[in-house]
Design goal:
mainly alpha; 2 domains; membrane; Putative membrane protein; transmembrane helix; transmembrane; DUF2304
Amino acid sequence: MIGFELAPIHGIGAVAGLALLYQSYRLVAARKGSVFEFLLWAGFGIGLLAISVGSALKSVDLLYALEGTLSALGFGPGTDSIFFVSNLLLLFVVFYTYVQLVESRRRLSDLNQELALLRYDLEQRTDDED
C-alpha cells in the first residue's frame, strides 16, 4: 500500500511545477522563448513537481535517493549537498539572466545609434529639398 501524506506545501509545489511546465510550453509555442529556455524552465518544473509529489509519498524517500545520487557524484551526505546543488542552479539562472540583460542593452544601444543616423539622414534630405 502506498502511503500518501499531503501537506499544503506539497500542493503548492505541485501547482507551481505544473505552472512552470505550462508557461514554458506556452512561451515556446508562441515563439517568445527559445528551446533552451523551455528546457531550463521545464526542467525546474519537472524537478519541483517530482520533489513535491515524491515527498508526499511515504513509501518513496526521494531525499534519500537524491542524497545517494549526490554522494555518488562526490558530494557529502545530508541536505547540505542538496542545498549546494540548488544554489548552483540558481546561480546558473542568475548568470543566464545577466547575459541576456547585457545582450539586450547592447542591442538597444545599436538600435539607438541606427535611429539617430536615420534621423540625421532624414533631416539632411529634407534640408536639401528646401
